[in-house]
Each structure stands twice: as C-alpha cells, then as structure tokens.
Amino acid sequence: MRLRLPACLLFLLTSASPALADATAFIGSATSPVNRQTKGIAVGMSLLVLGFEFEYATIAEDPVEAAPALRTGMANVFVQTPLAVAGIRPYATTGLGFYREQMGDADPATNLGFNTGAGVKVSLVGPLRARFDYRVFKLRGEPAHSVVHRFYIGANLAF
Predict the structure, then answer these.
(1) Per-residue pLDDT at 1
(2) DSSP 8-state assignment for residue 141
(3) How confident is the model at residue 15 (pLDDT cuts 50, 70, 90)?
(4) Are the C-beta atoms of residues 130 and 154 closer than 8 Å to each other?
(5) What is the rounded distance in angstroms from the CA atom of residue 18 to the CA atom of residue 25?
(6) Which residues pair with residue 120 across a beta bridge?
(7) What is the pTM of this model?
(8) Counting C-beta atoms within 10 Å of the first and last residue's C-beta, which end of the chain has fewer, N or C?
C-alpha cells in the first residue's frame, strides 16, 4: 500500500513524453538603483511541470545616476502548470550563476549571484508566445547594489 503513491509519482515523472524546449528574446527594465534597459536571451527545456533554463542578460550602465552595467549568466530550475489555462502558463523559477558589474573604466567585479522570480507564458499563434517575467537578483561579493529587480517582456518560441 505504501509503495503505490511513490510508484505512481515515479511513473508520471519518468513516463515517455516529448521534451519541450523554448527560446526567449527579451527586453525590459531593471529598477535598482534607477530604471535602466535590460535585454537578453533564455533557452529552456521542460518535462511536464519541471524545467531547466539558461539565461544571459545585460543591464545598461547609467553614469549620471552612478548605476553600473550588469551582465548575468544564470542556470535556473522552474516549475510550471502542466497545461496552459486559457492560453496562459504560469511558472516560478530560481537559480544561480555569475554576474559581472562594471562602472566606466573601473575594474569589473565578478562573483556569484542568485535569482528568484515568477512569470507567465501567453500563447499567441502556433508556437509563438509572449513571456512576462519578474526576477529578484541577489548578488554576492561587493556589488554597488546587492539586490536588483528586473521585469521583462519577451518573444518566446516553443520547439
């Protein structure tokens, strides 16, 4: 009796189903310490409700407001609804990776960073979806701003 539930869960997670992959090109805004443009790409793969994603993003420097440029490369894990509801598929994500922060000609700072966030993928036409994502980055070491908030809108292509 006790083995039925774990066996059923194991079967559901390992049963043969096609792996779903997607790629996102995005543009948005980072809000720490001031609003600055961010852009990047993300490539991911999901199996039912669990997925993995790799992301590269850049945040523009604003020398007037003393806001450094920031580049992040993150590996994330996410959970999502197994099916889209009314064409919308919500997800929650977390991950870690590296960041590189630079202000003008100063030596860049490179260290470990963590991110947590959530978003939705909205079906448009065929494999094309719109993606809305919010993340909070926590940067280790001695960055100018150890917490960075980012919101983006992206074009997502499922394949």
Answers:
(1) 54
(2) S
(3) low
(4) yes
(5) 23
(6) 90, 132
(7) 0.86
(8) N
CA distance 62 to 139: 19
Residue 149 CA to its chain's centroid (Å): 12
Q: Which H or E element spans position 20?
A: strand 20-30
**pLDDT (tens digit per residue) in 100-144:** 999 999 999 999 999 999 999 999 999 999 999 999 999 999 999
Give the pair of three-digit tokens for residue 159. Answer: 């394949």
Sign of the Cα torsion 103, 108, 114, 115 reads: positive
What is the residue extent of each domain of the chain? 18-158
* Termini Cα distance of the chain: 40
Could you tell me which residues are beta bridge partners of residue 156? Answer: 24, 129
For 50-107, write each residue's pLDDT tens digit. Answer: 999 999 999 999 999 999 999 999 999 999 999 999 999 999 999 999 999 999 999 9
Q: How many CB atoms lie within 10 A of CB 105?
A: 5
Class of domain 18-158: mainly beta
Q: Which residue has the tokens 């926590």?
A: 138
How far from 151 is each of 22, 86, 148, CA to CA, in Å? 19, 23, 10
Q: Which residues pair with 88 in a beta bridge?
A: 85, 122
